[in-house]
Amino acid sequence: xxxxxxxxxxxxxxxxxxxxxxxxxxxxRAISSRKPSIIDYLTLLSPIAGDFLEEMAQRAHTIxxxxxxxxxxxxxxxxxxxxCVNLCSYCSFHSxxxxxRKKLNMDEIETEAKxxxxxxxxxxxxxxxxxxxxxxxxxxxxxxxxxxxxxxxxSIEVYPLKEDEYARLIEVGVDGLTIYQExxxxxxxxxxxxxxxxxxxxxxxxxxxxxxxxxxxxxxxGALLGLxxxxxxxxxxxxxxxxxxxxxxxxxxxxxxxRIRPHVGxxxxxxxxxxxxxxxxxxxxxIFLPRAGITISTRERKELRxxxxxxxxxxxxxxxxxxxGGHSSTEKTESQFDISDTRTVAEMKQMLLSKGYQPILKxxxxx
Length: 367
Fold this sequence. Notes:
The chain has an eight-stranded parallel barrel, surrounded by six helices. It has a two-stranded antiparallel ribbon with strand order 2-6. It has 15 helices and eleven strands.
């Protein structure tokens, strides 16, 4: 309830009434603030702040160098299953989509692990559709036991779990959790999550905190940009991340900025989030949350990703397949969404080196 009460304080702010009163001086003060407040963060997301992207970029660059140096962590996702019991309007894996369903067995997972680890990557993110029946916690544990022979860091992006279930996964080797609220506005959330357990808004919202209480090393949160007004969703994402950072300072809190991509069964009634909007969100997030990780995935085209290096991004995916078994299997399934940047791990490493940045394949290890 503490998180829900905290979020409640901010969700009913009339953003556009606040924005209408802002001046250029307000934006300049927010950019230069040594310790920006949540309201400063809101100021940096305003329409008028969109005229100050260059100033925001310079500030974000300085903060990024101070906190992360010239380095970017590379990782890749591994899809274990596309079975799902939810009916979500924005996802190829939803239960009524007539796609080919597949779940990897342990031998297939090991084959995928060998293919990916041969590229040098040591951080991996495993994903499933949301089905406790097809991919129960025991299945995920068994998969982690296989994968930890090949990887130093294993994160999960699965259905929300109970605290004791997160603790079990952490005990066997999981150190990171990615879970997107998808959309923080409860009315929109209820609309796009048509059926299934994912309709339980608060159980999903509180999942990162349950993982923090279970002593996970890092949590990564975010909204799926395009489902609602991006300024509102970016603001609530920042509020959520700030809450977690303040309450669990020992946990590495990160934010992802995924935009909706083309996928099987897609309809077109989404809010447009332009490149300059995405850049403004990232710069505002870096200034407000100087210690937070920021992930930009292969949903974005390579030219944009290249230009974001140095402005706040700390993690990038590389060599990505969003199909189940997509790294090694010749038996193709539908992807969760189309990726935009199709570069290999080697090409991503070269890009970072050309910019004077160090591609990080392994940044910590279990002792």
